[in-house]
Design goal:
The complex is a heterodimer. Chain A has strands spanning about 5, 10-15, 20, 25, 35-40, 45-50, 55-60, 65-70, 75-80, 85-95, 100-105, 110-115. By secondary structure, chain A is mostly beta strands. By secondary structure, chain B is mainly β. Classes of the chains: A mainly beta, B mainly beta.
Chain lengths: ~120, ~110
Amino acid sequence: AQSVTQLDSQVPVFEEAPVELRCNYSSSVSVYLFWYVQYPNQGLQLLLKYLSGSTLVKGINGFEAEFNKSQTSFHLRKPSVHISDTAEYFCAVSDLDGGSNYKLTFGKGTLLTVNP
Amino acid sequence: DTEVTQTPKHLVMGMTNKKSLKCEQHMGHRAMYWYKQKAKKPPELMFVYSYEKLSINESVPSRFSPECPNSSLLNLHLHALQPEDSALYLCASSRAQQRTEAFFGQGTRLTVV
């Protein structure tokens, strides 16, 4: 089974500043990785995904992430954040359950707070 | 259409009540999931249905009973819940037997009194 570690539980940042949310995963032969965002009292929305190919992945709302196999990382970045980016961010890995079913395993989440 | 629709959005129930949560998707996904999320925690997997058959039960108490009547619908029947079962219940769907992204509904905020 794989696991995901989000290194920061909270990240405060000022508006228009850059931000990086860190995610590390346990090693595996092949890895499928995701970042989801959750706004207060809402469900999870997919920001971006890495399945294969280019290690730099671009997502919605100006976010991007880089898959680094040697460092087993998948950090999320945005060059300039807005107040509206304030939310909880979850890194997730897709894993086999031991049979033929895949399931998502989530990190504990990082609360991004953007201050004016 | 990448929407997963959950009803109701909010539910308050007593410990002796019976209620059901509903989830619907029309993306042709054959895997559907129930997750439970407590405040300030990540979602925790409860059940997985693959091709309308229960494939994963993460040791969930029997007071939670899932049902998948067809490929578009997923229900979660609730009976004799405890206050500690109060949480956000999220439904998700994805392609079965492929490692692709899951699409989540907006959740049902459940309060057990």
